[in-house]
User: Fold this.
Amino acid sequence: MSVTYQNDLKHPVFKVLAEYATVHQLDVYVIGGWVRDLLMGRPSKDIDILVVGDGPALASAVAAKLRVKKVSIFKNFGTAHFRYKDLDIEFVGARKESYLPNSRKPQTHQGSLEDDQHRRDFTINSMAISLRHETFGVLIDPFNGQKDLEAGLIRTPLEPSITFSDDPLRMLRAIRFATRFDFQITRPCLEAMKDQADRINILSQERITDELNKIIATHEPSRGFKLLQATGLLAHFFPELTALQGIETRDGKAHKDNFYHTLEVLDNLSRNSDHLWLRWAALLHDIAKPPTKRFDPQIGWTFHGHEELGAKMVPKIFKRLRLPLDQPMKYVQKLVRLHLRPIALVKGSVTDAAIRRLLHEAGDDIEDLMLLCNADITSKNEFKVKRYKQNFELVSEKLKMVEQKDRVRNFQPPVSGQLIMDTFQIGPCAAIGQIKSHIKDAILEGHIANDYQQAVEEMLRIAPTLGLKVQQAPPMPE
Ligand code: CTP
Assistant:
């Protein structure tokens, strides 16, 4: 007797669907990711319903029964969607599909359940559970998806070259699922991916980037990037990253492979943070190492200025990958620019002034910057790593102390432009900026405290050097 999943179909949505299917003699199934996730014991809120017949018509009828008002119907694709409580439910009619060689646009015809299962991406995503009364809860798994799930395999239902050629996005999806679930992609699939890597060029950048972000969001993104690299896919949309790969040796001196180093940093960081853009900062922190690489016979390999050039490369990369150019881009840029600063403090002597400057520049992103720097401490030499980590802790402690004492994070100089104009009876001019930046530096260097009275006294002290005379005494606290 076949196993049934009746007990997992207790949600009212399935009940309504089953009743409707039975009354109207329809073959209706829950299919794809929801079934996969159920078998993996990871409950999902995204339900894909397949009907042998008209998907949108079923969606409208079921929505009416559930008193759902808003149903989105995509006539061209023969699909429909609505939300019910916390569920996202997608309806589609069973299809046979064929694709034209240079387009993602499928030509579709109505098909059977089996036709539909054939044209899905992976065996683990092709399983269906019947919702019809007579067979309610029965798993229909013609490609042994359940077995592949247990074995941890990503395999296509059809010949891989056909499945990938039908929709090249599936090559990225294979890598995403393999990374997310710690699965292996079967060898024939990997070979087909290598053969067809250039087919991803027909995809829109948005869809590629969407998959890329999902790979970055996994618990060990390096696995995904190694697969992207090994299949040749990465080079098609992220040449700056592939350029990091390789080790060069001169006069017996070798530099580290910056591709693998970057991936190690990304994994280290991902163990401590889910923040997508912080993960992007880890991915891009050394992106300018190839263009700044030099060999100096005295000191070996150098990458001077890679943090500055890297920050300059960020907007270009974000633009091309269609990533958000507002806050996320600025945040990543800032972290790339500052990523060496805490480490420089670790290496050198940690003065309060240097800490205050760092706090001031990093502002509220200081904790994220410290997470990135901590992740960036990688070396084959355990002793070196241990020493760095200890020093790093020291810098972290000092950061906390200085922040408590001087409150310089996000601080504004305590003397305003208006006060300067009133005191010296001047209009907007360069002297205002000069006074403000002098006071800021004096505070950060620790010459004066971050306090109004001391700032005003400093302003009065330096005014004559700028040719300014007090015309109206600034207000002073009692
Ligand atoms: N599918 C496919 N080919 C694609 C995209 C999707 O065959 N390029 C099929 C798969 O059967 C998949 C289902 O459509 O299971 C739903 O796709 P989607 O919602 O994108 O992915 P899920 O598998 O549900 O995975 P998740 O939501 O966890 O990303």
In short: The two ends are 90 Å apart (CA to CA). The longest strand covers residues 87-93. The first helix runs from residue 12 to 23.
